[in-house]
What does this fold into?
Amino acid sequence: MSAESNRTYPHRMLAEIYEQPGAWRATIERSVEGGQIFARELASLGQGVRAFEKLVIAASGSSRNAGLAGELQIEDLSGLPVDVEYASEYAYRSPGSSAGTLVMVISQSGASADAVAALREARKRGAATLGLTNAPDSVIAREADAKLLTRATAELAVPATKSFTTQLAVLFLFALRMACERGRMDAGAAAGQIERLRALPGQLEQRLDAWSAESLAAARRFAGCKVFQCIGRGVHYAIAREGALKLKEITYSHAEGYPAGELLHGPNALVGESSVVVALATRDQADPGSVVRYEKTLAVLEYVKARHGRTLIISCEGDRRAAALGDATLFVPDAPELLLPLLEVVPLQLFAYHFGVLHGCDVDHPKNLVKAVTT
It folds into this structure.
């Protein structure tokens, strides 16, 4: 059944997971007009957009995880150096922003107190500022020198789902724009990348129902576990962090996200039958670096299985090697390395959702959490 059908959902969070294909389409189409990426949105930065020497991303929570994925997308495609800061720490760091720095502040609501403070501090330091938000009339959208908008429509459940993935889409498009500006990519190559991005909403629609059923089965399989170690390499590390954050927010489990190799430097003490290693083991077979990272991740999973650890693996369709190492495996379609995060995070959202519901948690309004931290 289509994700855009007029079905009803038991929770707002599940509805918003299913709204993601439409949110992605709207975000992509409004960001690319006449073949130009953010032509109007970045116009206020003038010709200076190609002259920036450094990008600083300031964000908190899920938005920071999106920023960590964006860091690799932007650096890999454009060569522009990127630092990702916690918004709550940015104002207290030694001044590192100057006239040659662009500071991007990411906030779903555009009203997070820490994000607003980071934006104002950046302006005080003389940096150009760029807001990325889902709220066009928010403080960040008004005060930033330029703004990029996600088109997720209102997100009512507290856990970020469609706001997070539309941020990933915007950051990927921004990476393409900067690659073109800096002479690392021509218009034809960028157009090809945009078409690959445009294909993802349809792929997601085709798989949502199956992923939901498979995620529910995995949640039941691991129902007695309360410790989750989420691992990934490269751009997938950001998604491991986001998967861990969803489990913490929704299920109140102990969950942490690590680069895959770091599991063997202390966290492996927790490996055992009462914990689960959640691994992002996808790969782009056309990308040699992606294949190397994938092989290294499988080596870590072999270590985990040798010690009777339990594993939930996200891998690409048809990957029997990864599946052989999983107690449960959720498959995503093949995609370019820097677009895989958009697909692989959705089964993690669904797993956290079903795990929380099975344990009687209020997944739409988890305890102690609010949609935007405005104080």
User: Anything to note?
Assistant: The chain is about 45% helix and 15% strand. The mean pLDDT is 94. Residues 187-221 form the longest helix (35 residues). The first strand starts at residue 32 and ends at 33.
